[in-house]
Amino acid sequence: MGRHWQAPHLLLAILVALVSFTYQARRKTFIRVQEENAVETQVKDTLQYATNMYNKDSDDKYNFRILRILKIEKQVTDHMEYHITVEMQRTICLKSESSNCAIQKGELRKQIQCYFSVFAIPWFEKYKVLKKNCSDG
Prior knowledge:
CATH topology: Nuclear Transport Factor 2, Chain: A
CATH class: Alpha Beta
Number of strands: 5
Order of helices and strands: HEHEEEE
Helix content: 25-40%
GO molecular function, one term: cysteine-type endopeptidase inhibitor activity
GO biological process, one term: defense response to Gram-negative bacterium
Distance between the termini: 78 Å
Shape: elongated
GO cellular component, one term: extracellular region
Subcellular location: Secreted
Number of domains: 1
Keywords: Disulfide bond, Glycoprotein, Protease inhibitor, Secreted, Signal, Thiol protease inhibitor
Strand order of the largest sheet: 1-2-3-4-5
Strand content: 35-45%
């Protein structure tokens, strides 16, 4: 009679194992967090994306560009997430212009400090700004 109960216990154990593995697969498990260098192609692409999204969403009629990179961290899970802190400054180019423009001088000069959290799967060219926080510098 003891053998009849072994099969249901084995099936229950397998079911519990499958549920726990599925749960673990759904959770974001950080593989690593590391500081990054701005010269790497993936980082450059992410910085460009964050700048483009800032300019697109901004109410300012001029484009901004990165003046100085303060910190870049890459968090790796099933994707990459970049945490970027930069100083940006208003350029002389209007939003309709997209070339590399000089920085504003004089009374229109404006400098801001921004933090961006960017979801990135660079090999598929997929990016999304998860968080953006900018303040006058």
